[in-house]
Amino acid sequence: MSLPDNLNRRVGQLDIARHGAVTLLTIDRVDKHNALTAEFWGDLRRVLTELEADQQTRAIVLTGAGDKAFCAGGDIAGFATLTTLESKRAYQIDAMNGFAALENCPLPVIAAVNGLALGGGCELTLACDIVLASDRATFGMPEAALGLVPGYGVLRAPHVIGRQMTKLMVMASETLDAQQALQAGLVQRVIPHADLLPKALALAEKVASNSSMAHAVGKRLINRGIERAEFDYSVEALTVLQSSAETQQRVRGFLERRKK
User: Fold this and answer.
1) What is the DSSP letter of 168?
2) With contact defined as beta carbons under 8 Å apart, do 118 and 140 qualify?
3) Residue 49 to residue 39: CA distance in whole angstroms
4) DSSP class per residue in 25-62
5) How far apart are CA 18 and CA 4, in angstroms?
6) Which one is catalytic: 143, 174, 205, 236?
7) CB within 8 A of 5, min separation 6: which ones?
8) In Å, what is the CA distance from 14 to each residue of 26, 139, 157, 160?
9) pLDDT in single tens digits along all 260 residues of the chain
């Protein structure tokens, strides 16, 4: 499928716009700090599949709408709608498949992190190839406060930022500012906030000018794939955690505090 130049359209939470050989994907749910609904993962996979088949897109930039958040993670309120073990397991599988689709996409994907990147938002950056951060960006995986762990993050982050830094972020819910994330290896460049998107698009254009075949082969060789057994264990562990009485109590407490 060939997409028209300067295409602007929306698929679920994703706004899609073409900039020459670069396609900009914007997570757009500003009123919720771009928190992700359950439908996001299927929409992301469909859009990536479409762009892979499109003969014009040679690089992707992923960012968040507004000035405050790249993505604040999964929509906690949506967890309350998952009432059965099977629905919880299906959600975890869907999310993990979404992260895998982003990581394994043959097109180079650059994250332009314009603010909060928490939980699933931080995990999305881990799945991207290159991460540029605004000097206002903050990264964190605070799921332990809800009795959970970041299912993809615990598998991928140790390869990116090391085991101990991953444990600090996961166990203590420690956040990293942009400079700390740069030092940890999660971010490759820190850019003044106002210049972030232009710089990300410029880098994507530079990347797009090189060989797409070389990108696809090189990316596959560089990325160390997550073993299927690890994937399955993470899904089952998260399903059990999400079903626990403690987690459900913590989620209710979070939602009640948010209403005040």
Assistant:
1) H
2) yes
3) 16
4) EEE--GGGTTPBPTTHHHHHHHHHHHHHH-SS--EEEE
5) 8
6) 143
7) 18, 20, 56
8) 5, 21, 25, 26
9) 344 455 689 999 999 999 999 999 999 999 999 999 999 999 999 999 999 999 899 999 999 999 999 999 988 777 777 878 898 899 899 999 999 999 999 999 999 999 999 999 999 999 999 999 999 999 999 999 888 899 999 999 999 999 999 999 999 999 999 999 999 999 999 999 999 999 999 999 999 999 888 898 888 888 876 676 777 867 887 777 777 787 777 777 777 776 76
Which residue type does 110 have?
I
CA distance 113 to 193: 9
Give me the amino acid identity at 214.
Answer: A
- Superfamily of domain 8-259 in the CATH hierarchy: 2-enoyl-CoA Hydratase; Chain A, domain 1 (3.90.226.10)
pTM: 0.89
Burial class (CB in 10 A: 0-12, 13-18, 19+), 45: middle
Place of tokens 């794939």: 225
39 is catalytic: no
123 is catalytic: yes
Catalytic residue among 39, 50, 123, 230: 123
DSSP structural state of residue 224: -
The count of other CB atoms within 10 Å of the CB of residue 198 is 11
